């Protein structure tokens, strides 16, 4: 097996996951914040601020999941049985949320059901994504390259806490998105919510950062053994600094910096997770090389991805450029 192929596919899937978390994270965050806004006009502005983007953002979830299936089939065959219930719940929540985008406008003024679907679908999808992440971090039981655990092994206090942390993180992205893309009362709400959420997210990241090494020896060894400690200590320090800057920018009245600061905060957390689990794709048993497809299959699929990925990136950039700028009451795409 060419050892570089699994690394290339790991980088591609990792990029797709990071793009999904950032892009779909802020529009899921809008749904998470939805119940805390009472004025009809402000809710309309919130939905219109993400209406041109939400479906394209979910393309990255398809790319990440599809890439896992074709490039690392053994990992896919282990992870799916381990997380069938939260994965199915997440997908159903995303479907319900997507439908609410279309039917809420048609059902006006009697659209309470679709408001609940939009908010509920966003909260459930975000929470279950965090639960899946927490379940992967704590480890999956594997025997003879097959899942050997039960249907509820993922349901632990740790995975539930990570799920709540992801909900808070997505809400922060949504709040700073409102600060960047809206004005007036909607922006003021985003600024107030963002100030509270950045504190909550930093606290959650601190808890997870302490919980994982205390509960999982391999992660403790990765972060606190020498010389790793000397190389890795800047990551939590920079995370705290970025979180502080986001808080200051929100208080100071900046529109754009808080959102991109929140994105950097997510990327730093993502970097920490990669460091904690590398080189395992199914911790703590199977590495990227253990689960990789045949080299011929990976090469064949890589050729297609080389042509597909620029199209997805180009489409994403085009849509964000076309619908740039702030959105006000009565404006939007629906």
Short description:
With 334 residues, the chain is mostly helical. The protein has helices at 4-33, 40-50, 54-57, 59-71, 73-82, 84-107, 112-138, 157-181, 184-215, 217-224, 228-232, 234-252, 257-277, 288-291, 295-322; strands at 142-143, 146-147, 280-282, 286-287.
Radius of gyration: 20 Å
Q: Which structural category do the helix and sheet elements fall into?
A: mainly alpha
Through-space gap between termini? 49 Å
Please give the CATH class.
Answer: Mainly Alpha
Mean model confidence by pLDDT: 88
Strand order of the largest sheet: 1-2
Largest sheet: 2 strands, antiparallel
Tally of alpha and pi helices: 15
Low-pLDDT stretches are none
How would you sum up this structure, described in words?
There is one protein chain. With 334 residues, the protein is mainly alpha-helical. The chain has 15 helices and four strands. A two-stranded antiparallel sheet has the order 1-2. Helix 1 packs antiparallel against helix 4, helix 1 packs across helix 8 and helix 7 crosses helix 8.
Entry keywords:
two-stranded antiparallel ribbon, mainly alpha, Formate dehydrogenase/DMSO reductase fold, two-stranded antiparallel sheet, 15 helices
Helix/strand layout:
Elements: H1 4-33, H2 40-50, H3 54-57, H4 59-71, H5 73-82, H6 84-107, H7 112-138, E1 142-143, E2 146-147, H8 157-181, H9 184-215, H10 217-224, H11 228-232, H12 234-252, H13 257-277, E3 280-282, E4 286-287, H14 288-291, H15 295-322
Helix pairs in contact: 1-4, 1-7, 1-8, 4-5, 6-7, 7-8, 8-9, 8-13, 9-10, 9-12, 12-13
């Amino acid at each position: 097996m060419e050892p570089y192929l699994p690394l290339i596919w790991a980088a591609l899937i990792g990029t797709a996951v990071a793009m999904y978390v950032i892009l779909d994270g802020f529009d899921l965050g809008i749904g998470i914040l939805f119940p805390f806004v009472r004025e009809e006009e402000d809710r309309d502005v919130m939905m219109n601020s993400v209406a041109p983007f939400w479906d394209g953002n979910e393309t990255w979830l398809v790319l990440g999941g599809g890439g896992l299936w074709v490039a690392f089939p053994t990992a896919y065959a282990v992870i799916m049985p381990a997380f069938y219930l939260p994965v199915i719940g997440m997908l159903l929540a995303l479907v319900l949320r997507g439908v609410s985008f279309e039917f809420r406008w048609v059902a006006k003024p009697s659209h309470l059901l679709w408001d609940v679907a939009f908010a509920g679908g966003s909260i459930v999808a975000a929470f279950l994504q965090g639960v899946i992440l927490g379940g992967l971090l704590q480890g999956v039981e594997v025997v003879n390259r097959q899942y050997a655990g039960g249907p509820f092994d993922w349901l632990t206090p740790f995975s539930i806490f990570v799920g709540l942390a992801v909900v808070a993180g997505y809400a922060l992205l949504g709040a700073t998105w409102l600060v960047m893309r809206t004005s007036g009362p909607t922006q003021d709400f985003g600024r107030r919510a963002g100030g509270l959420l950045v504190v909550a997210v930093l606290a959650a990241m601190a808890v997870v950062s302490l919980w994982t090494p205390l509960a999982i020896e391999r992660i403790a060894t990765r972060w606190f053994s020498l010389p790793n400690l000397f190389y890795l200590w800047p990551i939590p320090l920079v995370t705290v600094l970025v979180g502080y800057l986001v808080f200051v920018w929100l208080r100071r009245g900046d529109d754009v910096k808080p959102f991109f600061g929140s994105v950097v905060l997510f990327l730093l957390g993502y970097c920490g997770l990669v460091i904690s689990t590398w080189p395992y794709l199914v911790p703590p048993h199977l590495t990227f090389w253990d689960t990789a497809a045949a080299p011929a299959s990976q090469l064949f699929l890589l050729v297609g991805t080389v042509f597909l990925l620029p199209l997805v990136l180009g489409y994403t950039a085009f849509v964000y450029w076309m619908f740039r700028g702030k959105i006000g009451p009565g404006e939007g795409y629906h």
